[in-house]
Please model this.
Amino acid sequence: MTNESIWVYIQLNQDKIEPTSLQLLTKAKQIAEDKPVWAILLEPTTLTAEATIQQYGPDNILRLRDDRFAAATDEELADALEQVVTQYNPNSFLFPATTAGRSLAPRLQAKLQTGLTADCLDLAFDGDTLVQVKPTYGDNIMCDIICPDRRPQMATVRPNIFKAVRVPNSQTEVVSATFTFHPETTMTILNTTRLISQTASLSDAQTVIALGRGANQPKTIELARQLAAKMGGVVGVTRPLTDDPQFTHDQQIGQSGQTVAPDLLINLGISGAVQYTVGIQNANRIVSVNTDATAPIFADSDYGYVGDATEFLEGLLAQVK
Amino acid sequence: MKIVVCIKQVPSTNDVKIDPQTHNLVRSADGVINPFDKNAIEAALKLRDQTNGEVILLSMGPESYRESLLEGLAMGADSAYLLSSRALGGADTLATGYPLSQAIQKIGDVELVLFGRQSVDADTGQVGPIVAEYLNVPQVTFAEAIDLTEDHHLIGKRRLDAAEQEVEVELPAAVTVRSEMNQPRYATPRQIQKSFEKPLTVWTEQDLDLDPERIGLAGSPTQVTQVYAPAAAKKRVTMLTGTPEHAVQELLQSL
Amino acid sequence: MTDKNQKLANQMLMHMISDFTNNELAPVDMLIDKQGDYPEGLFELAVQTGLLGITLPQQYGGAGFDYAATAQALQIMAAGNASLAVTLEGHFKTIEQFMKYGNPELNDHYLPLATHQILAFSQTEPSGGSNPTGITTRAVKQGDNWVITGDKIMITNGGLASVYCVLAKTEDDQLAVFVVDQDMPGFSFGKREDFIGLKGTPVAEIVMDHIVVPDYHLLGQVGQGLEIGDQAHADARVLMGAVLAGIMTHELQIAVDYAKERKALTTPLYQLQVTQQKIADIAIAKQNTELLYQQAAKLKVQGQPYAEIAAMAKSYGSRSAVKVGDETLQILGGYGYSRDYPIEHLIRDARAMELAEGSIEKMNLEITKAEINK
Model:
């Protein structure tokens, strides 16, 4: 076993750290054994994300500073990362499976001629080999994937699969990297507009009201929206409801949709196919209402009620303060 | 203007199970075009109609992938290439991106390469950026809209994690397409018949002069060591009883 | 095209039709019935998708699929919604008559339009059913032209179609078929029927007041009217058999889904013998109709006589679709009787085909005649 480091890419969404990067720091530390965990931070001089990152306990923060990172292209980021990977030769390099991570990581992979596993649900070390658990066929099948001969072993990891845990590390060392920023002359970022997207709010929400095929009536949907508004939560749906024009793919939970990690999840009219339940494993408390007492969703729930979703919603709206 | 659309054939449903005895995947033999790739084909056809261009489909896989290429031709693409041989089989994303990029170079004068945002079976979305890197062209991933400008540039609107981004790239470039970009047209019955008259060329590693170390299983850094069904975590459930009002009351007390 | 490629092309057609059906037709099935018409844009999308040209030869801009593949496509479509399939049935059977009897000038004029305009065939008159001997529409020869005057009712796609083949009597009491179109002076539409089923398919009257058409608008020869009318019936019946098999596919799906989902106390319905008997009946009737129309289509493609089998497909298929629709309703119980569920309109849709293109009684008469003359 070697002491090669595990790298975690710190994704910045404008001035905010992508939560998945912090979740990955925690996970990396859990599986690291004696491997040092490095946070790889590409930031403009206007930002100082180091203090926040340090809260999650990496051994090192490798900092690449350049103001052009405020709006850099995938190629510019990949080029800078290639330079530091070649200098330090990490054992593995983890990225959030966000749109940014899934755009950048494969570009870097091609530069480094190594393996990259997409959208992992779990990670573990077998000696120096990173075993990457990846879902396929819309989460119907799991695969264990390894990259035995090449380094770094790269993976993108699905958001909200792991919980970020604060373990401040006073020993965290910030290392300034030596690299050259090579501007990509054939591409210009014209503008970036922050979105309050349903995706972000669904995966970050503390309360989620989820609707399935058994709760697809206009009245039920309206009541669910009212309850969500009252509780400060958001509405999510299962795959079949995305056919309804009032919902988008961004509001889908589970099977190649969103993974949610709310404190409270209320499932209404959802039978609980594995493709769905994969997306709710990190919900803290799960309440499910279904007319079918044998619905598999109850096996994944803390509280269950056999009955009508609409009436249950009416009860909640009346009683929730 | 030559536009290449890279497409993948996927099983017609994701309803795949593991045979409990053999541990092999049991999946429908029916292959269709990856749904996101249809959005890429639609985008290409629209641009072609604006620019009097040419839409060329490119895929890598067994002989049976001819069917999805024909389907793409029936949507209106002009010609198709299939990279197919035993040596190319078993490739991961890296060993897929390399032959595809070599084929695009051999096709020549390609100004735009389009991909669906990801395949619905493997769900990686990696091949687009890998090909962009090999071709050394800018990439616009997760695009929701694309437009050509008069000075040979492309303006793309990307949907990122918490932001929308507008970018401008000089052609040639590679774009991966989100399904929000368009509604793919149907193949028409007439085009289905005509698709058999359009050029469909099969290339092997010899036609592309590929490095044997970089293709197929040998050229794939990753290996699948195990395939299994996901385990569902079981919880101990407390059932609420009585009228909905009573059940809600009981729930709120427990919470 | 090689046989192997043609087989693949047929398979691609079925895939495409089933995508179209799942995405565009099935979701508006109930809506079509309730609003009594195609929703805005549906027919235009069908045109844009080239569905009007499935059978039309490629030289006229069509796809040139054979009748067997076309019939199969209509079955798939009808399993989502029968109205559009019946609209296409009326169009395709008319194209067949142009192909068999049309002179080159007539075909060169009208068949290229058939990719985006519906062609219709009309025999029935207010004075009496499909009986051609009582025809009162007159065609009078004037120099190089014909002057057509008369009333035609119960025309499938009346109002939607722009070109009409009409059966008329000449001065010497011979039957002939002429082609008129809606833009000709003297042409007007009458009332659209308020039928109880197939609510999307328009059925209407046309009125012809001294329409002047050139000689080449004669389809076939003077005296061939009866033959062409029978031929159109036979071609229509093959496709109607397919539509009926499609309706039964839909009924079977509803019955099976419900029997799997619904429980009588704790026992799923499908475990009850009474339900099992009904589902078997539905499946057998669907399969029989499928075999009959496919056999008729195959004989037609091979150039063999098919009129009798086509009559059987429609006679057996229409009666069965109504009967098994009723069985399905019974499985669903109160829900089956509700207009919130599709089964009641499937029965009404199927019921049309016990009448259209020759009543069951007329078909059975023809089948018996064919058997006796064997």
